[in-house]
Amino acid sequence: MTVWDVLQRRRAGADWEVVGAVKAPDADFAMMLTRESLFRRKEGEAYAIRRRGTETLIECEDTTGLGGVIDREFRRMDSFAGVGGKHRRVHEEMRERGLVIDRPRPPDRRQRRSAKQAEDDGEAARA
Q1: What is the CATH number for 29?
Q2: Angle at CA 33, nearest 5°, toward 28 and 37?
Q3: Which are the contacts of 33, defined by CB distance < 8 A and separation ≥ 6?
Q4: Which domain holds residue 7?
Q5: Mean pLDDT, residues 93-110 taken together
Q6: How many CB atoms lie within 10 A of CB 76?
Q7: Structural domain includes residue 92
Q8: Domain count for the chain
């Protein structure tokens, strides 16, 4: 399997920088793996791959992700801004409807083992 270096350009005109690597049998598959594993949320302005040990860059022609077929908002990092405020508004609305559990959490009833107990159990298992 061939190793392909993945390069990214954060802004237009910036230098390419190596941000990772993928293993793939050919350039097309490497480009697909790169897009799906490293650039689903449009982290950079452009990305490219190159076979490890060479200097020839293969730049991605379509940086829209999945060919632009599915452009979902959750894929972009900027879409997470304001999530905390939205969560608080929803919680307050649920409180007004009487759908919020307003009690303390139940006690944790799991038994905690001390380090000594764990060591004793390990010795008993080895015997």
Answers
A1: 3.10.20
A2: 155
A3: 22, 24
A4: 2-70
A5: 86
A6: 15
A7: no
A8: 1
